[in-house]
Amino acid sequence: xxxxxxxxxxxxxxxxxxxxxxxxxxxxxxxxxxxxxxxxxxxxxxxxxxxxxxxxxxxxxxxxxxxxxxxxxxxxxxxxxxxxxxxxxxxxxxxxxxxxxxxxxxxxxxxxxxxxxxxxxxxxxxxxxxxxxxxxxxxxxxxxxxxxxxxxxxxxxxxxxxxxxxxxxxxxxxxxxxxxxxxxxxxxxxxxxxxxxxxxxxxxxxxxxxxxxxxxxxxxxxxxxxxxxxxxxxxxxxxxxxxxxxxxxxxxxxxxxxxxxxxxxxxxxxxxxxxxxxxxxxxxxxxxxxxxxxxxxxxxxxxxxxxxxxxxxxxxxxxxxxxxxxxxxxxxxxxxxxxxxxxxxxxxxxxxxxxxxxxxxxxxxxxxxx
Length: 370
Ligand code: IPM
Ligand code: MG
What we know:
Elements: E1 5-12, H1 16-33, E2 38-43, H2 47-53, H3 59-66, E3 70-75, H4 90-100, E4 105-111, H5 124-127, E5 131-137, E6 149-152, E7 158-161, H6 168-184, E8 188-193, H7 199-215, E9 220-225, H8 226-235, E10 242-245, H9 247-260, E11 268-275, E12 281-287, H10 304-316, H11 321-336, H12 354-369
Parallel strand pairs: 1-2, 1-3, 3-12, 5-10, 8-9, 8-10
Antiparallel strand pairs: 4-5, 4-11, 6-7, 11-12
Helix pairs in contact: 1-10, 1-12, 6-7, 8-9, 10-11, 11-12
Bound molecules: 3-isopropylmalic acid and magnesium ion.
The site of magnesium ion has 2 residues, from helix 9.
């Protein structure tokens, strides 16, 4: 019997905790019914951590995260903490985890489930069968570049500064992850920047090109400017297989790609670090959606993005592709059976609650595993 996996759960704010409650039921189901076992620890992040511990993530929680086999995170943020100084905002907790754990590769699949083709804002023929993987650089670029800040000018006006900066190793390590994924998928990689206006984009393009030629000659590599990529994503999204891009463009393009699939409420993500000598990599899994304060605490949220994030954990951290498949099939089953939370329901379609969606998933798992 393999040893238990150390899992840290950080439910966070808003709809995070209620979505996580449903996912916990699936984690427990896996623990009982499949070969994998979990040792689960919990902690606070975001506004919840600010209120209880005085910081958006405590040193102790970061330490725990670094010593876990994987972290599952709900969502952070909410209006209650909007007026806090920048460095104390809930989002800083998430950004610190990404940075301290060196989770430089953020995998954001945009996959259109058959049953949800009609929930997309795009025509069904454009999105049916859609399966894109966006690889977003997550620990560099303008999110973390120095200098940054807001300064007072002598004339009494102010100046806001952020810096977009990338080095060769930063570009290479995320591009390598993207090339590797492309090899396991459709063998096509599109690298996205704005080399027409940014030197960091010129460097990005040159380094990705060099790496491709040296290590991945079999992968078909193309390049695209970020604005064009945004347009192509809504014009003809199925032209893409894997996209690799920087932190800020990846943030924006992944939201656009998410909406192609019908709802942000469906999309998971994986944030991965480098492999250590023991073959273990730090990893954090979280839905792409935010804390949705407008519906928080009302049992309305869609728990499927958090659940699918757990499935990504099984696949990428624990090499348990069969168990990940099982969860993804259960999701397809409940969607095919017409179960819809509000975010993915068509007008007039009956809506289920967060916990009813959890019930349906467990029933589907029981049935599949029977
Ligand atoms: C995301 C979010 C975060 C980001 C926020 C919450 C800091 O939008 O994960 O896409 O900008 O990276
Ligand atoms: Mg975002």
